[in-house]
Each structure stands twice: as structure tokens, then as C-alpha cells.
Amino acid sequence: MPAHSLLRMIALAGWIAAAPAVAAPQWVPTWVASQQPVWRPDELPLPTGLPARLEDRTVRQVARVSIGGSRLRVVLSNQYGRVPLTVEAVRLARHAGGGRIDRASNHAVTFAGQPAVSIPPGATATSDPVPLSSPLPALAEVAVSLHLPGPMRIDTFHWDGRQTAYIADGHHVADTALPRAEPFQARLLLSAIEVEARQPAPVVVALGDSITEGNGATPDANRRWPDVLAARLAGDGIAVLNAGISGGQLLRAGMGEAGRARFERDVLDVPGVQAVIVALGINDIGWPGSTFLPTTRLPAAADLIAGYQSLIDRAHRRGVRVIGATITPFAGALAVEGSPIHGYASPQKDALRQQVNHWVRTSGAFDAVADFDTALRDPAHPDALHPAFDSGDHLHPGDRGYAAMAGAIDPATLLPARQP
């Protein structure tokens, strides 16, 4: 071999060895719906809102992603199921308002190359990558359409989606509009949408209850506090996931598993997670002695503090930052005409809330604090929501309140400080 050719090969080999490694694409969730078991009518005084019949029907669900990309994956869940669930066909498209989709962007979704998938009890099914005809921007809405051949027993769902879903008879996953569609609010099977990220995409998880879920916000408008936070961070390529479950509690199961029980699945096992905002505790205080738990005693402040500390310790062992949220005021909560819930608020419960909030603010146990209490309370009545932020039930904020909550979060505290 000529000397100049050998030198060229050596130089080329050296350039290859010195070239920076190209990061492998990673799949990160850009939207989630935390799963919860379906309750029986004798367990909770609230309707599930599930469609009465699921045989040979098409379900269309809308989700707003936090970060975008050119390829997506769909995750379906049978987390609490007792029998396998079969989905005959799935399609993903850009949302075009209401129950309509942009037909030109409607892509078939497959699982191991097949259009149908059977999800065993206690399992999830992640689709093959869906290559989009044009990249999906951050904060875009997509619609996922499922044909359920049925008959189907649903034991897993997400109760309070704050986003209208649609169901129609027959197989219509490819249709622009579903014929004679019926609206409902729950989430069925759809538990996550993932995006392929070419660069590392940090993930922030909001772990909470109905106030994180967004009860009281305008439906179909993406005005929950995690939505507002996601809009603030979208330009930085940071995904914000709403892991709120209405009725969620820190210490005990309510309308879903206790926060400390689902912390591994909904936070620590999430690819790319770098921070969690813990906004739990209000139902641990409000439920005891109410219609929900009439004979249950209030926890002690020490019990709640130990629960928070457990989450902090587990997160820190995995290198995840923890932002603690103070518990919002709730004087008069749910004591409105027609409410089936009684006994949620009391002076004793507010005293416990104040004890816990003092610890959240002053203990230094959290990496940072989001002071939702200060952001929402009425200065004239600190145990109550400010009227401008109250949705009307004295427990859940409205759109303005959720915007104020997002404003109470300092983005600089969410991710580890970058090293120079």
C-alpha cells in the first residue's frame, strides 16, 4: 500500500476516534394519564363516567403533547385489569377540534408490526414508532382513535381527563369525524404518548391530586397548572407530565393508589425524569371525617411529614430533584348546593394544613418549594381561596388560579444546576 494511502487511513481513523459520539435517540413521554382502578358504586359516591357499552365501538381521545418530534409511540394500559383487553385497530392524527381529526395526518399505529394488540392483565403495550409526515411541534394536540371489538370489561382508567373524549358505534378509526359520537370525560386505555428525542430531553413530573389534574379548569382548554408550566418550558425542550389523580392522597389509597405507592411507576421509572413537583396532602386532610371516610381519624402532621420525607429520600437516591408544594387553602370546600360531599373542611383540618405547610417551607428537606398556598389564599381569610382564583367549589382553583400556581414555580429550581 502506498505510504500516502496508509497515512490517509491513519488520519481518518484518528478523526473518527476523536469525533464526538452522536447521542442515540431516546424515547421520553411527552404526555401521560396516570392510571387508577375503576371503583364500584358502593366504594365511592361518585360516578365513573365510563361509557355503558364498549362492544364494537370506536373511542377517540385528545391529548396535548408538551414537547414534539418526528416519531411518536402510543402506550396502552391494562394496569389493574383482571382479563386481557383486545384493541383491534389504533390510529394517531393531528386534532382538528371537537371530535374531528386532520385526515391527511392520520397514521396507522401497530404493535410488533400488527394492527391489533392484546394487553394482559397488569401490563402495558407500547406501539411501534409512528413516523409522522411532518414533525409535531411542542404543545400540539393529537387524537388517538381505538376500535374496541369487545365485549370489554374495563378495570383500569383515568377518571377526570378535563378533555372531552368521543365514542361511536362501529369501526371508524380512520374517519375524519365519528358518526353520532357521544362525549365523555374519562380516559380509556391510553396512558402515555412518547416522543423520540434526538437530544437529551429533561422531564418534570407533577405528582398530585385533582388540583394537579385540573378540576375546575375550563375543559378542552389546557389551562391546568402543569399545562401552563409546560407552555413556559416548551421552548427549552423540557417535557412536563401531569401525573395528577383526582382524589389522590399521599399516605392512603383513595381514587387511586397512594402517592407513595405509585411514586416508582409514575415518577422514578419515567425515562428522562429530572424533577418531581409533589402536590399531595390536601385529601389526606380533607377526606377523614367527610362523606368519603366518615369514621377515619385525621393523620398527624408527623405522618404526612414522614410520607414526604420518604418520597424525597427515594427520589434523591435516583438523582431526581423534589420540589415541595404547600397545601392550598380550602375553607368551605365542597359545601355548595347539590354537593354529595360533606365535612371536607374544618378549623382543625386547617390547623393541620398550616403545620404541614410550615414544615414544607422551613425544613429544607425539599430541593425547592412551590408556595401554592401563598399564591392562592385570600389575604383577608388565609384559610380560604381568593375569590378571583376560586372555581366556585372553594377547593379547586379556576383558570386564573391555575395560572397563579404555575407562576409560583421558579423554572430555575426544576433542573440540576449546569456545571461550567
TrEMBL record:
<dbReference type="InterPro" id="IPR053140">
    <property type="entry name" value="GDSL_Rv0518-like"/>
</dbReference>
<dbReference type="GO" id="GO:0016787">
    <property type="term" value="F:hydrolase activity"/>
</dbReference>
<dbReference type="Pfam" id="PF13472">
    <property type="entry name" value="Lipase_GDSL_2"/>
</dbReference>
<dbReference type="InterPro" id="IPR013830">
    <property type="entry name" value="SGNH_hydro"/>
</dbReference>
<feature type="domain" description="SGNH hydrolase-type esterase">
    <location>
        <begin position="206"/>
        <end position="404"/>
    </location>
</feature>
<keyword id="KW-0732">Signal</keyword>
<feature type="signal peptide">
    <location>
        <begin position="1"/>
        <end position="23"/>
    </location>
</feature>
<protein>
    <submittedName>
        <fullName>SGNH/GDSL hydrolase family protein</fullName>
    </submittedName>
</protein>
<keyword id="KW-0378">Hydrolase</keyword>
<dbReference type="InterPro" id="IPR036514">
    <property type="entry name" value="SGNH_hydro_sf"/>
</dbReference>
